[in-house]
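Sequence of Leucine-rich repeat-containing N-terminal plant-type domain-containing protein (Solanum commersonii).
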Amino acid sequence: MGNGNLALFLLYAFLCQLAISSSLSHLCPKDQSHVLLQFKHMLTISPNAPGYRFDITDHLIQSYPKTLSWNKSTDCCSWDGVHCDEMTGQVIELNLPFSKLQGKFHSNSSLFQLSNLKRLDLSYNNISGSYISPKCELSSLIHLDLLDSSFTGLIPDEISRLSKLQVLRIHSDPYGLRFGPHNFTLLLKNLTQLRVLDLSYVSISSTIPLNFSSYLTTLQLWNTQLYGILPGRVFHLSNLESLYLEDNPQLTVKFPTTKWNSSASLMELDLYRVNFIGKIPESFSHLTSLRRLTITSCNLSGSIPKPLWNLTNIETLDLCYNHLEGPISDFFRFGKLWWLSLGKNNFDGWLEVLFFNKSWTQLKRLDFSSNSLTGPIPSNNKSADCCSWDGVKCDEMTGQVIQLDLSHSQLRGEFHSNSSLFKLSNLTRLDLSENDFFGSLISPKFGELSSLTHLDLSYSSFTGLSDTQIYGILPKGVFHLSNLESLDLSGNPQLTVRFPTTKWNSSASLMKLYLSGVNATGRIPESFGHLTLLRRLRIASCNLSGSIPKPLWNLTNIEVLDLGYNHLEGPISDFFRFRKIRSLSLRNNNFNGQLEFLSFNRWTQLGLLDCSVNSLTGPIPSNDCGGDDGVAQTTNPVELDEEEGRDSSMISWQAVLMGYGCGLVIGLSIIYIMLTQYPAWFSRMDVELEHKILTRMKKQKKRQ
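Predicted 3D structure, token representation.
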């Protein structure tokens, strides 16, 4: 009995200790909770940011505002993105990638008080106009990721003092970030524990020093303005798996002639547009783990060395724009290929052989343009079911092709007016965007596809040169497709659009009209007033002038309206008639009126208003808006999150003033309006960015 009581006592003591230990492990220190809440208020949340974004590995990741879960009434160790030490409760990790954060990161940010922080990830946010602070002295930091977060300016040499760093990613917009003299050398010299280093698009503008961490597995220095000779030691890093040096034309690469120390580990090698003169060395044959090889535009010549054919794990091979030669059939030995690009070389052989090759069972892309191939192109296998082809969707009952998506398919050439596509009379959706139909007119036969509900011919050129884009006059028949719901012709500046002056046949169905960047010189016609179902209208940068025609104010379903970068005029107050408007951009026009009228709550669903660079007058209305979590507000623009804004009926403003003369006429640049119907902040997502995101989503979808 005594032993039983002792056992029960010991069990009770153990459970108590476990409970106490568990409680302690999740007890966030108040000062660190306060620090994180201050950080929360430094940046705002942008629900208008893309819901999905591609990461550096081209995987589609969902974005969501992680900091919404942060509240002073709960333990900060339970907050989304926050990880604490299980013993001490100290915050050791802050993981906020894809969190829809926006705003300015202050040099004296409260985050720098988290002295035990080991991991800081702010990647894929919009912290634009912010500098990397020299006060970043987090000596325990092992992982720092600022990839694609819009930081700018000089990278401070204090980064090189974070001697425990194993992962450093400061991937920026092209040359938005730069190193000072010798700072790159200092960084490589001091950060001896690095495993991953990504400085892509950072302006390094120096040679590559000899000092490298021997632990490196990934080295990414795309487009960094490197010059000089690549140190041979790079190829002898025994743990190296990925080496990306693309787009550094002043960098000279000399491959080792003998076996590399990284031969057993290297899986990805990208040397696009670096300076390499000569032949591919036989030492490449030792790279038995290699899966991806890109040596495009490297001035290579000669034949492929025989030992290279032993690289049986190759999946992606790009040798374009060189002077290589040899029989095309040799490439059949790469049985795992799914991407093969050999354009602009001197390979020879019979075209027929390519089409009867059975070894490329996984091939999805093949480019052998501009080579010395001969013979006719074999006809397609007519017995194949086209409904199973990528980008093609058929009616389940009739088998007729009803949708065709060839966007971003790298199609090149003239789009003929008698194209066989026009025989697909049952098409409801046609997407030919992001291709290169140079010198092509938009055929009147597009207007004969009477079943079309969606037509997308946007951004039909890669280069942006005037002689490589769709040009000519848009056939009026396109506007008379009676079932058309969505029309996108954006990004074709050589395309002239003349709107019908009378009612369109598509008036009763059209809901989305995107024409930004086309040539539509003149006035907006009154016929727009018949588009009663229209919800989204983008006609920015179309060289339009004059006032808005009165019938246009009858479009009561408008939710998104972009008239930016034109020469339009009239009172700003007229736009109050659009009661369902969520996004309104009038930037760079000649609209006039008093700014104070904007303070009245007429737009109950508005998330974005941009009326910068117009002829608006008067003072900017201001209201106060604060949080209720007990944290002192900083001097940066006010923001409200979902919890803090639920009971607020105020409009809060963020504005940038641009004075003219004595300041009586001002431009209102980027106004954010927060109303009770939309509890989180909306921000401007640039049309080009939106287009790119949608394009990549289409591309990803087609791969699946």
